[in-house]
Amino acid sequence: MAFVLRRPFTIAATIKAIPKPTSGTPQTCIRAFHKATTSQQAQRPTSFIISGIARLRQQQQTNLIKNGFSKRTYMEPATPAAPAGGIGQKLLYGAGIVGGTMLAINLVFNRETREDGGMPPFERAYLNETFLHTGLGVGIIGVAASALHRNGWSHRLMAMNPWVVIGGSLVASIGCMYGTFSTNPENYVQKYALWTGFNLAQAAVLSPLLFMHPALLARAGLYTVAIMGSISFVGATAKQEKYLYLGGPLLAGVALVAVSGFAPLVLPATAIRTLAWSENIWLYGGLAVFGGFTLYDVQKVLQHARMAERGMIKKDAVNESISLELDFLNIFIRMVQIMAMQQRRK
Predict the structure, then answer these.
(1) What are the phi and psi torsion angles at 83 (to 5°)?
(2) Quick one: average pLDDT of 302-329?
(3) Radius of gyration of the chain (CA)
(4) How far apart are CA 167 and CA 146, in angstroms?
């Protein structure tokens, strides 16, 4: 009965699949199951053959019914589908995204390139050292955030008062950041200790992001590298000091983004439209603002390289890397949130 309830049309489909008898034998086959006629009793060898054929067809009918019910029912789990695309295809998509983004931004923002014959070796070396410290700092943040998340720090952080978390993170981050800025570059131990403390403070705040799916975080990281790489390329190859005027407008924009980020903590939950607008400003406005800061910071690094070459300031790639780290983290956080929202809508 359970098979009939699960597959109600199996019996009908199975009976239809039984091969039909040939012409001239249907009545004899049916009579083989009952009493034979007088004419058939006189032909015992023929009756014996026909009854054997009837038994064979009966066995075929039984086998067909068994095979019909032996198929997978609705209660059995389906076979998992093979994942679409391999790692090569995903890497190809990522490379296409990075290359396309770099080409598009270069065509739009970098129509006027440097006129001094390219980047001088000193500027190139200083920029490479700055990006090396930026990558090292982002790596420290990732490893420390993963270790804190495995030790249960993320759960305790989510249970805390949000104002305490914001206040503590601002004090720790700003304190270590300005301590790093004010330390002489020749004092390596103190400078790198404060710089490491700044990275650990960022990791402590960002560890709850690891509740997200690793594939989503990997995609967000790839898109962030594509955005920052393309914008940095534009800033490095553009005319000298072309985008340094963006400092003032970007400061006003980051203030607006910061205020919109505090809106959910201040506004009531009934102000749905205002909260939606503030979220859009924080997400998309912040993405534009920190993309502009990346362009500004790269050109500022090159300007400091020229000043250090002339002896006006000391060479300090650690200080320069902090600004680019903040740009990377802010773009990455927004990419994660945007992609998570798109995944929920699907």
Answers:
(1) -60, 140
(2) 93
(3) 36
(4) 23
CA–CA separation, 150 and 166 (whole Å):
22
**Nearest Cα to Cα of residue 146 among 217, 219, 87, 226:** 217
The pLDDT, as a whole number, for residue 276 is 84
Average model confidence (pLDDT) across the chain: 77
Tokens of 96: 């296409």
- Contact between 208 and 200 (Cβ < 8 Å): no
Token duo for residue 164: 């305490």
Give the mean model confidence (pLDDT) for residues 246-258.
89
pLDDT of 88-98, one tens digit each?
Answer: 565 566 556 65
> pTM for the whole thing?
0.67
Beta strands in 160-258 (DSSP E): none
Burial readout 289-312 (b: 16 or more C-beta within 10 A, e: otherwise) = bbbbbbbbbbbbbbebbbebeeee
Asked if 127 and 302 touch (Cβ cutoff 8 Å), the reply is: yes
Residue with tokens 């960002």: 206
Q: Is 186 exposed, middle or buried (0-12, 13-18, 19+ CB in 10 A)?
A: exposed
Closest CA to 294 of 233, 221, 210, 214: 233
Cβ atoms < 10 Å from Cβ of 11: 14
Adjacent-strand bridge partners of 238: 113
Kindly compute the dihedral angle of the four CA atoms of residues 187, 190, 195, 196, in this order, to the nearest 10 degrees.
Answer: 130
Q: Which of 72, 65, 90, 58 has the alpha carbon at shortest distance from 6?
A: 72
Dihedral angle over CA of 280, 90, 135, 165, nearest 10: 40
Pairwise CA distance, residues 30 & 39, whole Å: 15
Highest mean pLDDT among 12-16, 32-36, 156-160, 182-186: 182-186
